Amino acid sequence: MNRTVAIVGRPNVGKSTLFNRLIGERKSIIDDISGVTRDRIYGEVEWNGATFDLIDTGGYVDNSQDVFEKAIKEQVKIAIDEARVILFVVDVMTGITSLDEDVADMLRKSKKDVLLIVNKVDNNKRLQEVAEFYGLGFADLYSLSSISGSGTGEILDEVVERLPKEIEDAELTAEQIEEMKIPKVAIIGQPNVGKSSLVN
Ligand code: GDP
Ligand code: MG
């Protein structure tokens, strides 16, 4: 059962800030300089009794623009393969960039569950600028201020809603557990050719 959620987006939009806030500790490095998060960082999130795995993507260590964009797209591809739900983070302060559009194209084509997260919405004035991001073509858009945490609850509710349900042992009856232990092997053959000796 895949309960993995990945955070993707171009550098400096606040992916690592969001990651740290959701996992509740400072595991991913946040920096003003683009490209500080090395590789992928894994964490676990707990929300209202549910848990899921969260991946922060980054690892854009080369400063050349081409390699940079290639690395971002590579991370998006991996996220599409691995994650059940993708959080696509954009930045209200910069507006939509061409790299945002490229990532949006990849995600739309993948048909994955994507929540578009418009980050850095720290005040009401910025809230008015969120609507432009509907232009990226995602119906599910959430505004967030990763720095203050405002907006995280709604996002977490929606993520948990979209993940496959966790099945805990306690929810199964003793009979169901017993049933799961019996190997389901059908023995097919002519009557009276020694089927019972096969079983014994
Ligand atoms: P990443 O490259 O996408 O992982 O971005 P980071 O999490 O490293 O953040 C890049 C910069 O944006 C840092 O200076 C953060 O403090 C800043 N930042 C992140 N979230 C917010 C936010 O909600 N509001 C504001 N104003 N700045 C933010
Ligand atoms: Mg980062």
Topology pattern, helix = H, strand = E: EHEEHEHEHEHHH
How would you describe the shape?
A: elongated
Strand tally, please?
6
**What is the averaged pLDDT score?**
85
How many helix segments?
7
Outline the low-pLDDT stretches: none
| Fraction of residues in β-strands | 15-25%
| Helix-strand category | alpha/beta
Bound small molecules, deduplicated: guanosine-5'-diphosphate, magnesium ion
For the biggest sheet, the summary is: 6 strands, mixed
Global Rg: 22 Å
Q: Separation of termini?
A: 35 Å
Output the strand order for the largest sheet.
2-3-1-4-5-6
Helical fraction: 25-40%
Question: Could you outline the blueprint of secondary structure elements for this entry?
Answer:
Layout: E1 4-8, H1 15-23, E2 41-47, E3 50-56, H2 65-82, E4 85-91, H3 98-110, E5 113-119, H4 124-127, E6 141-143, H5 152-162, H6 174-181, H7 195-199
Parallel strand pairs: 1-3, 1-4, 4-5, 5-6
Antiparallel strand pairs: 2-3
This protein binds guanosine-5'-diphosphate (GDP) and magnesium ion.
Magnesium ion (MG) binds at residues 15-16, 28, 36-37, 58.
Describe it for me?
It is built from 7 helices and 6 strands. The protein has a 6-stranded mixed beta sheet, sandwiched between helices. The protein has helices at residues 15-23, 65-82, 98-110, 124-127, 152-162, 174-181, 195-199, and strands at residues 4-8, 41-47, 50-56, 85-91, 113-119, 141-143. The chain is α/β, with parallel strands linked by helices. Helix 2 runs parallel beside helix 3 (98-110). The chain binds guanosine-5'-diphosphate and magnesium ion. The site of guanosine-5'-diphosphate has 20 residues, from helix 1.
